[in-house]
Design brief:
This protein is an alpha+beta fold. The chain has one domain: Heat Shock Protein 90. Helices cover about 35% and strands about 20% of the residues. It contains four helices and six strands; from the N terminus they run E-E-H-H-E-E-H-E-E-H. Strands 1-5-6-4-3-2 form a six-stranded antiparallel sheet. Helix 2 runs antiparallel to helix 3. The N terminus and C terminus are likely disordered.
Length: about 180
């Protein structure tokens, strides 16, 4: 596994109004694999540091993202690679899944299941699952990379500190320090 700071994609399409930027961690871990649907050992490695109560939910979401990259992105071409960079910092987990395909064109309107229409339409079951499992899902402009973010309640905070409070604090911190990190990149 490689532990270097990954290059950030500058043009991301965000699916949430408030966006958590990538961690200021000095080290990201990464792994790559040829396009395959045999994902058990890969998922085990990616989920090893996550807490047990959320592991099954995260496994479902990550499996969907990896299948999308290998099957739809790379067309299960064994000559193409799926890469995953991941990090944990300040109560958040980040996964960045990249494929070598032609890119994904996100539908303008994502019509996910509801009580009126129980069938998944344009966006498909996979996108629906990603949005249910992860707090934030954002794609690169070229559609070859998806950023997945999941917040965990930091163990050092008392139970009365809400997720909204933490999101606002982290966003304020990032707004303050982001220009510095862009200049140093």
């Amino acid at each position: 596994m490689n532990t270097s700071f990954p290059g950030e994609s500058s043009n991301l399409i965000y699916s949430a109004t408030s966006v958590v930027k990538s961690p200021a961690a000095n080290r990201w871990e990464s792994l790559s694999f040829t396009s395959t649907l045999y994902l058990c050992p890969i998922l085990d490695a990616l989920l090893e540091p996550t807490p047990d109560p959320l592991r099954d939910e995260l496994r479902l979401g990550l499996q969907e993202a990896l299948v999308n990259a290998a099957k739809h992105g790379n067309g299960l071409d064994p000559q193409k690679v799926v890469s995953v960079r991941y990090a944990r910092a300040h109560g958040y987990y980040w996964w960045i899944v990249t494929d070598q395909g032609n890119g994904f064109e996100r539908p303008a309107a994502c019509l996910c299941p509801s009580t009126e229409s129980p069938l998944v339409s344009e966006c498909g079951r996979g996108l629906y699952i990603l949005h249910q499992v992860f707090d934030q899902v954002c794609w690169s402009e070229d559609g070859k990379e998806v950023h997945l973010i999941k917040q965990m309640q930091p163990s050092f905070l008392p139970g009365w500190v809400s997720a909204v409070f933490m999101m606002r604090a982290i966003e304020a911190w990032w707004r303050k320090w982001l220009p510095i990190s862009i200049r140093s990149a």
